[in-house]
Every structure is written in C-alpha cells, then in structure tokens.
Design a protein that fits this description.
heterodimer; A: 210 residues; mainly alpha; Butyryl-CoA Dehydrogenase, subunit A, domain 3; 3-stranded antiparallel β-sheet; two-stranded antiparallel ribbon; 10% strand; B: 197 residues; alpha+beta; 2 domains; two-stranded antiparallel sheet
C-alpha cells in the first residue's frame, strides 16, 4: 500500500493561520519558517500537543474533586446558611418535580464534564499507545468534545444570575460557593485541553503502520 | 490542494455552488464552504450584532419582583453579584464569556473585513483571522441564554421574572453573531487579499 496522501507524508505543511500549504524545508538549528501568504509560523503539528493536553487534563481532574464536594451556591435565609453542591442542586430539582431543568443541569454539569475528561484521557492514551482502532470515530469524538465543552458553563451562569437576583438583605441572600470557582476551572481547563490536542496525531499512527 | 485540519489528508479543491460545504473523505471534518458575498454578509451581520450588543448591555435585561420589591437587572448585575460575593475569578470569567469575548469577536471581524471591502489590507490580518477562529469558543451567549431560562424556572415559584428589552436585544445579537460567524469564509478573505496585492 502506498503512503496515505496526507500533507505531512507529501512533505507539505498546512498553515494554521490561512490554510495554505507550504513545502517543508530543512532548517538550521533555531531557525523557523513562516507562511508566505500570511506570515504565521509554520508547524507540522501543534507543539508538545500530548504533554500540554495531559497537563491540562490532570489539572482538570484535580479541580474536579473540590468542584463536586464544595457548595457552588450558599443560600442564607434569616442568617441560616445552606450550601448546595452541584449534585445536591440537581437532586433538589428532581424532588421538586422539575424534570426538564433538572435533567438539563444534570447533563451539562455532571455528564458533560465527566464524559469530556474521560474522552480526552482515552484519546491521549490511544495516541500514546499508537492505536489504529477506528480513527474516524475517534476524530468524531474529538469534534464532539470540542463542540460540547462550553455548555458545561451553564450552571455557572445560573449561579451568577441567582446571586445577582436574590439579594434581600437580612431576609435572604444567595452567595457563590468555593465549588463554583473550581467548577469553572474544570470547564476552562478542559476547553484548553481540547484546543491543545492535535487530532492529526490519531492519523499519524495509521501512517506508521502502513 | 487543501489539507484537512483534523486528519491532514490532502484534497483537491473543487468549485462549490453557493451555500455548499465540502467534507473530508477520511474523517468527515469540514474542509471549506462557499458563501455568496461572504465578506459583505459577515460585515452586515457583525455591524447589526454590534448595535444589538450595545442595546443588550445598556438596557434592562429583566425585572425581578419578589414580595413587592421590584429589582432591575442588567447582564452586568451577575458579574457584580459574584464579585461582591467573593468569587472574583468566576466574576471575571462570566464577564469575559458574556461581554468581552463577543465584543472582541465582533470588533475583530469588522476590523478585518471593512478595510478589505474598501480596498486595503488591514495590518495583522493573519493574527486577526486566527483570533476570530479561537475566540468563538469563549463567547457563550447561547449558554447564557439557556441559563436565563433555567433561572426563570428555578425562581418561578417564589418570584416573578420578566424579560425586558435588553434580553430580546441579547437574543437578536446571538442570532446575528451566529449568522456572521457562519457567513465568514476564510477562503474568501484570503482570495480578496491576494486580489488586492
């Protein structure tokens, strides 16, 4: 079988600024090449994609623990504070019979972040183990992760709205909990991890096998 | 020739009809699309969105009434509430994703396209195009709007929430921004730049 017709296999580099293809040239130490059309630095793959993505994913796992253990919102009625974690907030909504909203928050705040972290970990491991298993499906999974990640911010926006709205002085107040900051950190870290992962690495393994 | 951004496979570019898109044969990723009058459309939607941005941020977003007290809220109230409540990092993040990122995205689009249509290459156009591509992830207008609906349901039992002009302007801005983003064809931008040189 002939080498797959990828840009890298044909000695070409795709500019990530303007998409123009340039011929790869041998450079001296410390030299770099820029795109002739737009001047962007040419890179065959995202630099240090795996180690950067690993670092961000591990940091996200670490923040994930306090994000779920600590309250994201503290509601005080007549001076009595009562904290709600993400999970207990969803539980309350289900108890109230708000299935649609509860389900939505459950999906955006619990299913999406966990699925995203596990997917990124799986993608990283598959590249590291030079897997040739279903590259197309893994690339689609990457695109889903890339697209869906921002929706995890949903609950943080809800917190910001509640905090702004419920300010009744001594009667009742709503304050952000420390969990909210950690949760937002998880969302940001996983978004950055998805951006730093280069899905072309999935396909590079395929070429090496052939 | 064009290489797929997701799997690096090379494709020969073909003429597309207006509104058509080309996908990668190996991984199914979007390769390129063709939009009729891409630059003019993007500019029109971006300017419309910018006007709506100002209305959305300067007018009342919603009225909140609880036990006889009526409170006016703007988009910025949430940021203030979080800041006052000690979650400064989260306040900055909410401010960035609902106000700063959409504004920067719109301004960069106008900065890039307006000069091109008038016949000049704006300085730093490559950086501007890369910026437009990456800032989109951080502009979370749609997520914020869904959060507003969730808050209405959650607070609906004890209080009354009424959406005001600011909220409708916000929804319209979201639609205009999405339209601007999907009208922007980077191929058309670079073709225009090459034409000018």
């Amino acid at each position: 079988m002939s080498a797959p017709a990828t840009a890298a296999a044909r000695g070409l580099i795709r500019c990530h600024g303007c998409e123009r293809l340039s011929r790869r040239r041998r450079l001296g130490a410390g030299a770099s090449a820029s795109c002739s059309r737009c001047g962007t630095l040419l890179q065959q793959r995202q630099p240090d994609s795996l180690s950067r993505t690993w670092a961000l994913v591990i940091a996200a796992y670490i923040c994930y623990v306090p994000a779920n253990l600590y309250p994201v919102m503290v509601f005080s009625r007549l001076g009595q504070p009562e904290g709600d974690t993400i999970l207990s907030g969803v539980q309350v909504m289900f108890e109230m019979g708000w299935w649609a909203v509860g389900g939505l928050i459950f999906f955006a705040s619990i299913v999406v972040p966990m699925a995203k972290l596990l997917s990124l970990t799986g993608l990283l491991l598959s590249v590291q183990w030079r897997s040739s298993w279903r590259p197309r499906e893994r690339t689609v999974l990457y695109r889903v992760v890339e697209y869906i990640g921002r929706w995890s911010m949903l609950d943080m926006f809800v917190v910001s709205l509640m905090v702004a709205l419920i300010q009744l002085g001594a009667v009742a107040t709503m304050e952000p909990g420390i969990g909210a900051t950690f949760f937002a950190a998880v969302v940001i870290l996983t978004l950055l991890a998805a951006l730093s992962f280069d899905p072309r690495l999935i396909w590079d393994q395929m070429e090496e096998r052939e | 020739m064009i290489a797929c951004e997701y799997c690096d496979l090379l494709h020969r570019e073909r003429e597309l009809a207006h509104g058509q898109k080309a996908y990668c044969s190996a991984c199914g990723g979007l390769l390129y699309r063709r939009v009729e009058n891409s630059l003019e459309r993007t500019l029109a939607f971006a300017i419309a969105a910018l006007v709506l941005f100002m209305v959305a941020n300067l007018s009342t977003f919603m009225l909140f009434s609880l036990e006889g007290r009526v409170q006016e809220n703007t988009i910025f109230s949430g940021v203030e509430g979080l800041w006052a409540g000690g979650a400064q990092a989260l306040a900055l993040l909410i401010c960035f994703t609902t106000i700063v990122a959409p504004l920067l995205s719109l301004l960069t689009m106008i900065y890039t396209i307006l000069p091109l249509l008038l016949g000049a290459r704006p300085p730093g156009v490559a950086g501007a195009m890369r910026f437009i591509g990456s800032i989109g992830t951080w502009a979370m207008l749609d997520v914020f709007m869904l959060a507003v609906l969730v808050a209405i349901v959650k607070l609906g039992m004890m209080a009354r929430l009424e959406l005001q002009v600011g909220a409708w302007a916000f929804v319209a801005m979201m639609v205009a921004m999405t339209a601007a983003g999907s009208s922007l064809d980077s191929g058309a931008v670079w073709a225009r730049i090459e034409e000018l040189e």
